[in-house]
Amino acid sequence: MPDYGHPLEFGTFLTPSAQDPDRAVGLAELTEAAGLDLATFQDHPYNPDLLDTWTLLSWVAARTERLRVSGNVLNLPLRPPAVLARAAASLDRLSKGRFELGLGAGGFRDAIHAMGGPLRTPGQSVDALSEAIDLIRAAWDTDVRGGVRLQGEHYAVQGMKRGPEPAHDIGIWLGAYKPRMLRLVGAKADGWLPSLGYVEVGDLAGLNAVIDDSAREHGRDPRQVRRLLNLTGAAFTPTSGGFLQGPPEQWVEQLLPLALELGVATFVLPTDDPRTVQTFGAEVAPALREAVDRERAGAGTPTGPARPSAALAARRSGIDYDSVPASLRDGAVEPGDRGYTGVRHGYMQQGRPGLVLRPTGPEQVAEALAYALKQDAPLNVRSGGHGISGRSTNDGGVVLDLGRMNAVEVLDPGSGLVRLGAGARWGEVGAALHPHGLAISSGDHGGVGVGGIATTGGLGYMSRAHGLTIDRLTAVELVTAAGERLRVDADHHPDLFWAVRGAGANFGVVTAVEAVAAPVRDVVLGQFAYDASDTAAFLRAWGEIAGSAPREVTAFLTLGTGRGGQGPAAQAMVVYAGDDTDAAVRALEPFLEVGPVLDQRAQVAPYPAVLVGHAGPHQGSGTPVSRSALLEHVTEEAAGAVARALATGDAYFAQLRQVGGAVNDVAADATAYPHRSAGFSLAAMGRRAEPLDRRWAELGGAARGLYLSFDTRTGPEVLAQAFPEPALRRLRELKAVYDPHEVFDQNFPIPPLS
Fold first, then answer.
1. Is the pLDDT of residue 5 over 80?
2. Are 93 and 168 in contact (CB under 8 A)?
3. 617 and 345 in contact (C-beta within 8 Å)?
């Protein structure tokens, strides 16, 4: 029989004794400490001498960090598949992808029936298991619209809602010995989990053949089925006493042909002896891995999981999928994969990337970048995917998704020094910093990614009190186009540190930033709704009131076109960066004088609660036409242009974000973001570029540059407004040094100076 090429894994099969529950948990923890991959437990719900396996799996997952857990195998007749699907996905999400579903048809018929389970013949049990697999997979498949409907002989659901989606592709492993069950393994399962004692080593070749033939009959590659084996009866002894009865080196010698000739890739050791667990992890597992890797390299054996034929058919041209680095394969998502819908789109743009790579650290980022540059396909980098311009996805290219690099660390609570992974979203950052009484001003949406906002600017609800997001940075870690990992700060590569704070997407893949958070726990939020029918006058009044507010106040104003013959309405979020309610009331009261107030409220709130929540993956609603301008003041000219854009429908949305204060305290040449005299950031969205551009031209001299993140245009004119000289020339000079071949050419690209 062939070597199926799966990477080797090792685990334990532990007794879930109710008489000594701490021992079962302790052995699982020891399994992890010994370097093993998996802890499994038998499942006999009718046996009161054993702990409930599902409860134990959840407990062990919570007590460990790396260890995967599974039943060996779960009793399907006493665990309804609809509930099991939800429970499995939930535990997988809670454990961050560390659950596998070992499943059995249920062999102890009388005990199952005594506990209220169905009394099925062996043939009916196989049919029920087949139906259950279909139901479970359908419940996990959130890419499909509509509910799950299954009308089987043993299980039926009528529109069951799908989800939650597991954190990873949970493997369904079946314990099987007889031909009909083996054919089911080949047709539908991800793994086969027999035990020595029920089968002999000499039987494995023939049983594998049944599985392989069934897999091919159902259009599957036999390599899609991982072969696992419970090593029942094995023991470490000083001298040889037979098969797996001897010292560790004998085990390695005897297990090697099982891997290379019989395809066994997961070796599970039934034991409750701590020394045996430690020996298995320290002496057998690494030696056997090394021996198998050496033999495979010499034989040129293909390694890694096989892909379903449907997934292969969905691959895009120009991408060498088979050469994806081994370290990135587990996190790679292709168009035919389950979960592709969750990673294909951005906040605005719908995407159809050919491959999404999801590294977990800077080393993998460098590998992913090197791989992507060898492909005949565009490369886009994504941190949170929230950008208005939609440049975090593509059609047919490679997306480097940093979402799994989302750690938030408080390095020094006293000084406020924190380290943020580029893939963290700002809702996560706010929640992690709040218990320490810290916050960083950060846009207005919890879905904004650190890597995007911390390299562009960061116009947030506390900007006037604490500056832009980039103003809080003390260091940036990135991978350059050449694959070099750099840490840049005021003393190390200061030129690059200057550039990434404002134009960072042009100079590398930012993997993490260090920043000084401000001592903020709660803020006072004022929310106002206005009748803005007299739009120009309203905007002028707003600009005057906001401009005279103390710097603890940052106000955002949003206007939409009127409906049903009514003029435009306006909504305002006005944040006082502190919890002094008396001072906040004095600062917020003038906003009641801007225009006719339709609604008002104010409350003390934790800063994270002020951010718009983010739930689930982006869906891509369609990239709008968006324009940006920076204003020193809301002039009559600017107010009139915005009013006309809304009145004509050339813009369906406009927002005025207040800046100034601490933002203006920073010198114009201190960062690549040079607009340090601006008092307001203006943005508008429309459906067509030409009419919106005409209205934008009416801003005239009131516009003093633009904020890149709110503009969907590209080209020399846009760059000249975003980075007025001498900033643009300096950026082009640095681009020629750090990215002369324009690897990073998707997100408002800056051409290198030739």
1. yes
2. no
3. yes
Nearest CA to 744 out of 450, 396, 318, 380 is that of: 380
Q: Is the peptide bond preceding residue 73 cis, with omega within 30 degrees of 0? A: yes
Distance, CA of 578 to chain centre: 32
Helix/strand/coil for 83? helix
Pairing between strand 99-104 and 172-174? parallel
Cis peptide before 726 (omega within 30 of 0): yes
Distance CA 58, CA 90 (A): 10
Q: How far apart are CA 300 and CA 5, in angstroms?
A: 10
E-strand spans in 422-552?
473-479, 485-489, 509-516, 522-531
Question: In whole angstroms, what is the distance from residue 261 CA to residue 750 CA?
Answer: 55
DSSP 725: T
How confident is the model at residue 336, as a pLDDT? 83
Q: What is the pLDDT of residue 565?
A: 63
- Give yes or no for a cis peptide into 194 (omega within 30° of 0): no
pLDDT of residue 622: 78
pLDDT at 733: 97
Closest Cα to residue 602, out of 611, 613, 591? 591
Asked whether residue 1 carries a pLDDT value surpassing 60, the answer given is no
Q: What is the mean pLDDT of the chain?
A: 94
Mapped to the 3 state alphabet, what secondary structure does 142-211 carry? CCCCCCEEEECCCCEEEEECCCCCCCCCCCEEECCCCHHHHHHHHHHCCEECCEECCECHHHHHHHHHHH
Residue the block writes with tokens 């404002």:
502
CA–CA distance, 487 with 476 (Å, rounded to integer): 6
pLDDT in tens, 265-321: 999 999 999 999 999 999 999 999 999 999 999 888 877 777 777 788 889 999 999
CA distances from 702 to 307, 372, 382, 508, 637 (A): 57, 43, 33, 34, 7
Residue 171: closest CA among 94, 71, 251: 71
CB 173 within 8 A of CB 73: yes
- Mean local confidence (pLDDT), 723-728: 96
